[in-house]
Write a structure and sequence with these properties.
It is built from 14 helices and 4 strands. The two termini are 22 Å apart.
């Protein structure tokens, strides 16, 4: 088996760098490699394009992530936050209120997820956007009407006033503390560096606190009003509808499960015609002894097979298994992450040593290969069939025998013992 593997590897390289069994020059080989790389990059680009043709789960169910985030949220005023997020896509969705610097036009047509219709996501792709998500979009867009915009404007103005009063209190408290210390120290008022007396500062702080409390009450009422308008209630009702959400979530999970398989199918449909054509041309060129065509078609065949093998391994989630193994090791070692480095430093040389020993002993073992070839009357060098008493291979001119260092008779090359006297023979390379 291993001798067959080695012959296959040697045949692979011979086909890749020889024309009619003659090696090509280094300059031509460099040109071929450059062409191979160019074609390989274009093949991967084509694979990327065709893999995006089927509609992704995120595009087929675009409302799912935001919907799930709302249902999983335990934040206070999450209903108001959700409505505010719809009206302020340009701001921070996690903010308690709307952004301070909002103009009257900032509450127009929603940006980000709603700037382009969900139905546009399906254009140029295979598949359709979920009907429930289209309903979600329409219901969400209805929230941004003139009534909600007006309320949002009031909320913004009220928050700006609260921020202004809070800023004034910070400045007054700073002066109040300094003035109070001056009065305790008995410093004359005319020598004070502050513009207000302690008593006056205290009155202004109390007055501003009352204004802040009043506006906070107003703000709470505006928030309740914003959530209570019919369009907001319709949207919140949809968000809390278990049947609709479960339909979207189940569809998304199914799509996520099958999406890698569908991508691999389309990538295979892209690559298989190229592989079949390149393979057919190569076989035809070999039969007709068209050396250049055979060489180019062989390189194309290999180039087209590389992405297919890569995508199959990617589909099998080899990287996921490695990541899972690393997470398991990290869990076993706990917080002592440096032990993972020790483990890698130990394992990598052991794995490398084992691989070298395996290939040296079983795959590229010269004596083992020679024994198999002598038994089958094959050349010990090129593995092509020869006659039993041929001293040199007629295909590669390699000498099949060497002189025994004991009896000086000719014995098989690379075999451990002389066939005449049985003396151990050195391995002649």
């Amino acid at each position: 088996m291993f001798s067959r593997l080695r012959r296959s590897i040697r045949r692979f390289f011979n086909k890749s760098r020889k024309i009619n069994h003659e090696p090509i020059n280094k300059f031509s080989l460099i040109i071929i490699i450059v062409v191979d790389l160019f074609i390989l990059f274009n093949v991967f680009a084509g694979l990327d394009d065709i893999s995006q043709w089927p509609l992704s789960p995120e595009s087929a169910y675009p409302c799912r992530s935001e919907w799930a985030s709302y249902r999983e949220s335990t934040a206070e005023e999450k209903d108001y936050r959700q409505i505010a997020q719809l009206l302020s896509r340009g701001g921070d969705p996690s903010a308690t209120g709307l952004p301070i610097n909002i103009s009257g036009d900032s509450y127009g047509r929603l940006s980000y997820a709603y700037a382009d219709s969900y139905s546009d996501l399906g254009e140029g792709h295979l598949g359709e956007v979920s009907e429930i998500c289209l309903q979600y979009e329409a219901t969400a867009e209805a929230v941004a009407n003139s009534d909600s915009q007006a309320i949002a404007k009031q909320i913004n103005d009220t928050q700006a006033e609260i921020a202004s009063f809070t800023s004034k209190n910070v400045e007054i408290r700073r002066q109040y503390d300094s003035t109070l210390l001056e009065e305790i120290a008995g410093q004359p008022r005319e020598q004070s560096i502050n513009t207000v007396e302690a008593a006056q500062a205290r009155r202004e702080i109390e007055q501003n606190d009352r204004a802040i409390a009043q506006r906070e009450t107003t703000l709470e009422g505006l928030k309740t009003q914003l959530v209570s308008i019919p369009e907001s209630q319709a949207f919140l009702s949809l968000l809390n509808n278990d049947t609709f959400f479960n339909g979207v979530d189940d569809g998304y999970q199914r799509a996520s499960f099958w999406y890698p398989s569908i991508q691999l199918l389309f990538q295979g449909l892209f690559l298989l015609p190229l592989i079949v054509i390149a393979s057919g041309v190569h076989r035809f060129a070999e039969r007709k002894n068209y050396g250049y065509v055979s060489l180019i078609s062989w390189h194309l065949f290999v180039i087209f097979c590389i992405p297919l093998v890569w995508k199959v391994f990617e589909f099998l989630q080899f990287g996921f298994l490695v990541q899972l193994l690393l997470e398991l090791l990290e869990a076993l070692f706990g917080g002592l992450r440096f032990l993972l480095n020790y483990l890698q430093i130990l394992l990598i040389p052991i794995i490398g040593f084992g691989a070298i020993k395996f290939f040296q002993r079983f795959v590229f073992n010269t004596r083992l290969q020679a024994a198999n070839r002598v038994q089958k009357m094959l050349c010990v060098n090129c593995a092509k069939r020869i006659r039993k008493h041929d001293i040199h291979c007629p295909h590669c001119s390699y000498a099949q025998y060497q002189e025994c260092n004991n009896c000086h008779n000719l014995t098989y090359k690379h075999l451990p013992h002389c066939k005449h006297c049985g003396t151990n023979q050195p391995l002649e390379l």
